[in-house]
Amino acid sequence: MNQVLVQPKAYPTNLLQKDWSKRKLTHRCGQAFVDKVHDMEVRDDDVWIVTLPKCGTTWMQELLWLVMNDFDFEAARSEHLEVRTPYLEFNYEIHNDLDHAFAPVEALKSPRLIKSHMPLPLLPQQLWMKKPKLIYVYRNPKDYIVSRYYQYRSLGYFMSTTLAEFALKCIEEDRAAPSKDFEHVTEFYELRNEPWIYYTSFERMKLNLHQVIEDICKFLNKTISEAQIEQMLQHLSFEQMKKNPKLNHHWEFEQVRAKLKSEYEDNNFMRRGKAGGYKDELSADIIAKLEDMIQRNLDHYDLSLNQLLLLDDKAAL
Q1: What is the distance between the alpha carbons of residues 15 and 194, in angstroms, rounded to a whole number?
Q2: Which of 166, 194, 244, 258 has its CA 20 to 30 A from that of 216?
Q3: Domains and their CATH numbers in the chain
Q4: Contact, 300 vs 177, CB < 8 A?
Q5: Is residue 181 within 8 Å of 141, Cβ to Cβ?
Q6: What is the pTM of this model?
Q7: Burial bucket for residue 258 (CB in 10 Å: 0-12, 13-18, 19+)
Q8: pLDDT per position in the chain (317 positions), as tens?
């Protein structure tokens, strides 16, 4: 997954006052794509979901799409999530066609639900100015690192790499604080009280999905009945999502595999859906090394992981 240094045309100085000259930014799509994103037309009624990969994005996407589309479960089950709510970077990653990079997004009727993994300063400038609704979801890094490993192998990457080796590679890449992942999350965390941003975590969704659904409805000015909440809780349960082919990214995976033409491991996208699942898969030594890396970054920002996850200080991580 090669990354190249990029330079945004402008920074969101109207949102955050910081020394942006120290912000080193990379992206695998390159400078021309970053420039195109910067100039992208944002609609006032857009809804954006921004996350680091494997942080509960799909779970929140489906929740949001249903709230925005009057809880039309039949329509949700009849079309792939990636078609209903496109991943902004995906079309260019597959086709490398800059002129049509945003075709799936532009084809959507308003209000659009758009997903991106890009950091704040690489998102469209109009997003910072118009401030449409934006949802950010974070997750314990120890869990998302494990989850990323299995997703990469499902696409054909890291096939000769063990999970322990992958975790050590992540630790080495993030040796300097702040890491790019922590820059990504802390910028949105700092904006969490802005009225146009809803910030939450995978762990909060696991603890009380009912409350998150209610919060999202309030955030998007939508009403929901208790019966609809029960339907949502059933539809969004891990058991139901795992067996729902429209939510396991088959549409995307088939295109990536066809492009790479390499061996891959056929892991289900919805693999375990646990908070703290890393404890079952990583050795105590690797966990300790990951915790050291995480703590270096947290110390840089004078934050705790529980703060970033919106958890009580007594919560187990």
Answers
A1: 10
A2: 244
A3: 42-309 (3.40.50.300)
A4: yes
A5: yes
A6: 0.94
A7: exposed
A8: 688 999 999 999 999 999 999 999 999 999 999 999 999 999 999 999 999 999 999 999 999 999 999 999 999 999 898 889 999 998 898 888 999 999 999 999 999 999 999 999 999 999 999 999 999 999 999 999 998 898 888 777 777 799 999 999 988 887 778 999 999 999 999 999 999 999 999 999 999 999 999 999 999 999 999 999 999 999 999 888 888 887 766 656 776 666 767 776 665 545 565 778 899 889 999 999 999 999 999 999 999 999 999 998 666 66
Distance CA 316, CA 48 (A): 30
CB 212 within 8 A of CB 135: no
Q: Of how many residues is the chain composed?
A: 317
Name the residue type at position 232: M
Q: At what angle do helices 163-173 and 284-301 cross, to 10 degrees?
A: 20
